[in-house]
Specification:
The structure holds three protein chains of three kinds. Chain A has one domain. In chain A, helix 1 (2-18) packs antiparallel against helix 2. Chain A has helices at residues 2-18, 20-30, 49-70, 79-86, 104-111, 133-138. Chain A is built from six helices and no strands. In chain A, 46% of the residues lie in helices and 0% in strands. The longest helix of chain A has 22 residues, at 49-70. By secondary structure, chain B is α+β, with helices and mostly antiparallel strands. Chain B has a single domain (53-257), classed as Alpha-Beta Plaits, CATH 3.30.70.20. Chain B contains ten helices and ten strands. In chain B, helix 4 packs across helix 9. Chain B is globular. Chain C has 15 helices and three strands. Chain C has a two-stranded antiparallel ribbon. The longest helix of chain C is centred in the middle third of the chain and has 31 residues, at 229-259. The radius of gyration of chain C is 22 Å and the shape is globular. At the B-C interface, helix 5, strand 2, strand 3, helix 6 and helix 7 of B face helix 5, helix 6 and strand 2 of C. Strand 2 of chain B pairs antiparallel with strand 2 (342-347) of chain C. Bound molecules: iron/sulfur cluster (2 copies). One iron/sulfur cluster is lined by residues 133-135, 137-138, 148, 153-159, 189 of chain B.
């Protein structure tokens, strides 16, 4: 998190050289990652941050077709990965809906005034995620034997 | 169901549970050596037509009053998270909420014999729902699973008109709670996808078949119709089975024994 | 032969704006109903997973097939070279486009995701008859507009015949296509027959003509243009012919269904035991939509009277809506037969319908949305005839066909 802030400050300084107006811009963009999210502790998103800012939708959309038609769910470019990592938590450790006011997806999309309708259908907090890529990878060594997997209740 | 069978089932369940534990301990370390890589982890290559997934329902084993498969499907696919809209009539809501699998009870007109069976999307080889869908949102995956691409479904419900099995549901209401693995939203159509998320992660099972076995009924056998050595083909070889509405020539992936 | 003069609709401004205001209100209410259903989702309608297409589809399909039928009048003029029908052609084209737009709007607004219309327009599944229909509809609108141009523009006159013929063939394809939307549904007993397509074609002839006549009468009365008795007779005889054709094809439909023994369930349902649907079939489809108007049209005295003919047209329309209701909703309410030889005693949770007749009661918003579509069609027509020259100045017999009236001094 400290790094993010340092980065923000650096960017702001850099921008300040170029012009005051853009300084505000850079600072605000950097702010959207929530301190309580897993993402805050990471150096980078799944791709370089600058790239993600511009192209995340292309990645998500590409992955969406791979998943729907090809059944490839393990890749890191899927929407469930975004939610898992960027979702914020309240003081009690409960995840907050990522499209809620002030949360990661919503605040940036509001700022850029770009419509967002992923969450018409997709879950806004990680829920029943046992089969998302992280957990599946963790269970990979078990998956050969049908009997050894956790039952529905455990998931 | 009398006491004897009850306790027998209980016994079998315990036995299965124990066996599962043993096999987990015994097999898990060796899995990497013996399991084909394609099945061991989340897939990295697109599905192919090397497999065609299907089910065999042995109606003689399907128990009266048991809803294990339905309940398992509901929680696996987040169907139990649907909420009746405020003020909606109870019975009408039952016909509006999404249902992927339902228990059907039949009585033979001649003999009066009663048969129970679960009915879900039959994963037709020649699916009418796919033929009629104007946008191509209804599609058949290479491995035979028929599903809906929610991103292109416009909610015209033509597929529901076309399906002979009432397998499809329209989402009539705003959906507030959903699982990560089972997206769901107002205005699209959906149906059973044979737990594709499990298969894609290398888990060859469906929630319904698993639950049925856990109850000790073994009325549902899931597997690969193209694998002659697999459990499904073996079971099909043992029992005569047919397709519902066989006359339509849809070559369904779900087969029924005992009707 | 006299040159036909076309003139804008010369209704007094107060009446004209009053009419527009009423239509606008109907449309606004329809629009609000659509918004309401869209906002809440379809649970507020009568539709369920058993009856997936409700009253909006009844109106939409009715309007769409009427659209292709309304073009019929123009086709008779150009394609079959019946001179007397020529002055009727322009209104016929306008009405066709207007009805089509009204019907399509209802269809679109009843989608689960109307916001994805763009998806529907850009992603096609060519094995889907529905996707083909999207082409047929948009092509129809384009061709009819071109056809109108050839009728209105001197430079385009030499194209009138080929374009008109093309439009005629296209409209046959369109109605056949609409009929096939249902005809291809193998899983529903009522639809599984090829006779549905020709049935839809004759229905479109009758409904389209009935609407055409009503609009024509109203417009001509409103600004005092004459319609000659010979013209009136021609139109009503044509309508009579189409009504008879509907009755004939309805008979054929039920005979083919009865002949295929496995369909006697659905036949009993539609003809005898289906309650509301049986009532709508006999009273709406057959009596009001068929026998009564036929009786009027061939009655020696009533058939001379404009108001009775107007009533007959109205009956055809009411009967048409009843027929659509029976075809679209009745056949969904009828249970899908999955287990021959068995009685379905339980199908999912109580309320989940299988093996028995599915309940459906239309909700108000559905009905209002459908009426909104009618409003749109009429609004387009009203504005069209007002600002452009669609209506001939006179349909008095001597103006339309001087030779005929010379031959029979009436
Ligand atoms: S059972 Fe119905 S939904 Fe499933 S593939 Fe066949 S037609 Fe489609
Ligand atoms: S409702 Fe969706 S999946 Fe079904 S036919 Fe229409 S677009 Fe295709």
């Amino acid at each position: 998190m400290a790094e993010v802030m340092t980065k923000g400050v650096l960017l702001a300084l850099l921008a300040a050289v170029l012009g005051v107006g853009s300084a505000a811009y850079a600072e605000e963009v950097g702010d959207f990652v929530l301190p309580s999210s897993k993402a805050a502790a990471l150096e980078n998103c799944v791709e370089p941050t600058e790239y993600m800012r511009r192209n995340h939708f292309e990645l998500i959309r590409h992955q969406r077709d791979e998943t729907v038609y090809g059944g490839i769910r393990g890749d890191s470019h899927g929407l469930s990965g975004c939610v898992a990592c960027h979702v914020g938590y309240d003081d009690s450790g409960t995840p907050i809906e990522i499209d809620a006011e002030g949360q990661f997806c919503r605040s940036c999309h509001a700022y850029a005034s770009v419509e967002m309708n992923c969450f018409d259908c997709h879950a806004t907090v990680p829920r029943g995620e046992a089969w998302n890529h992280e957990v599946a990878a963790a269970h990979a060594h078990l998956t050969g034997s049908a009997a050894a997997r956790p039952t529905a209740a455990e998931r | 169901m009398n006491h004897e069978t009850e306790s027998m089932n209980q016994g079998r369940r315990d036995f299965l549970g124990a066996a599962a534990g043993v096999s987990a301990a015994a097999v898990a370390p060796g899995v990497f050596l013996h399991t084909p890589v394609a099945n061991a982890a989340p897939r990295t290559d697109p599905v192919t037509d090397m497999h065609r997934w299907g089910l065999l329902v042995d109606t003689s084993k399907c128990a009266d009053g048991c809803t294990a498969c339905v309940d398992a499907c509901d929680s696996e696919n987040g169907l139990n998270l649907q909420a009746k809209p405020h003020g909606q009539d109870e019975l009408k809501w039952e016909n509006q909420r999404a249902v992927w699998i339902r228990k059907v009870k039949l009585q033979d007109n001649l003999t009066g014999h009663v048969t129970n069976l679960p009915l879900m999307c039959q994963h037709c080889e020649h699916p009418p729902c796919v033929d009629v869908c104007p946008t191509g949102a209804s599609f058949k995956r290479a491995d035979g699973i028929v599903m809906v691409d929610r991103h292109t479904c416009i909610g015209c419900r033509y597929c529901m008109m076309a399906c002979p099995y009432k397998a499809r549901s329209f989402i009539h209401e705003q959906v507030d709670h959903k699982l990560t693995r089972a997206p769901r939203g107002k205005g699209c159509v959906e149906s059973c996808n044979l737990c594709a998320h499990r298969l894609d992660n290398g888990d060859i099972s469906t929630a319904c078949a698993e639950a049925c076995s856990a109850e000790g009924h073994q009325a549902l056998i899931f597997g690969d119709l193209k694998d002659p050595m697999g459990p499904l083909r073996k079971a099909l070889a043992k029992t005569p089975s047919r397709q519902i509405r066989q006359d339509l020539g849809l070559n369904t992936g779900v087969r029924y024994a005992g009707i | 032969m006299k040159r036909i003069v076309y003139r804008e609709w010369l209704l007094q401004p107060q009446r004209y704006w009053g009419l527009l205001a009423i239509l606008a209100a109907v449309i606004a209410i329809g629009g609000l109903s659509a918004l309401y259903m869209e906002h809440h989702g379809h649970w507020v309608t009568g539709m369920t997973n058993s009856v997936v297409w409700g009253v909006p589809h009844v109106f939409a399909v009715f309007l769409i097939i009427s659209a292709s039928g309304a073009l019929n009048v123009a086709s008779i003029g150009t394609v079959f070279d019946k001179k007397v029908y020529k002055p009727l052609g322009r209104l016929s084209g306008l009405l066709a486009v207007a009805l089509l737009i009204g019907g399509l709007l209802v269809l679109v607004l009843d989608l689960g995701r109307p916001d994805r219309l763009l998806v529907a327009m850009t992603t096609y599944n060519f094995s889907s008859i529905f996707a083909w229909n999207i082409f047929l509809y948009s092509g129809f609108a384009a061709i009819v507009i071109g056809y109108l141009w050839t009728m209105a523009e001197r430079k385009g006159q030499y194209l009138q015949k080929p374009v008109g013929t093309f439009a005629f063939l296209w409209r046959l394809a369109l109605t056949t296509g609409t009929g096939s939307i249902f005809g291809f549904l193998v899983g529903r007993e009522a639809y599984d027959t090829a006779i549905l397509a020709p049935l839809f074609v004759v229905m479109s002839f009758a409904y389209g003509l009935a609407i055409y006549m009503l609009v024509l009468f109203y417009a001509f009365d409103a600004d005092g243009r004459p319609i000659g008795p010979a013209m009136l007779k021609r139109l009503k005889n044509l309508l009579g012919l189409f009504i008879a054709a509907i009755l004939y094809f309805t008979l054929i439909y039920h005979l083919t269904k009865l002949y295929g023994a496995k369909n006697d369930g659905i036949e009993t349902f539609l003809l005898i035991s289906g309650g509301l649907y049986t009532g709508l079939f006999w009273v709406g489809w057959i009596l009001i939509g068929g026998l009564l108007p036929l009786g009027i049209i061939y009655h020696p005295e009533l058939s001379q009277r404009r108001d009775w003919i107007t009533a007959a047209c109205g009956m055809v329309i009411v009967g048409g809506l009843a027929a659509m209701y029976v075809i679209i909703i009745g056949s969904q309410a009828y249970p899908q037969e999955m287990f021959p030889g068995y009685n379905v005693i339980q199908f999912g949770a109580p309320g989940d319908i299988g093996g028995q007749v599915a309940p459906y009661s239309p909700s108000f918003p559905e009905l209002l949305l459908g009426l909104g579509g009618v409003g749109i069609a009429l609004l387009i027509t009203a504005v069209g005839v007002r600002v452009l020259q669609f209506l001939p100045e006179s349909l008095a017999d001597r103006d339309v066909d001087p030779h005929a009236s010379a031959r029979s001094p009436a």
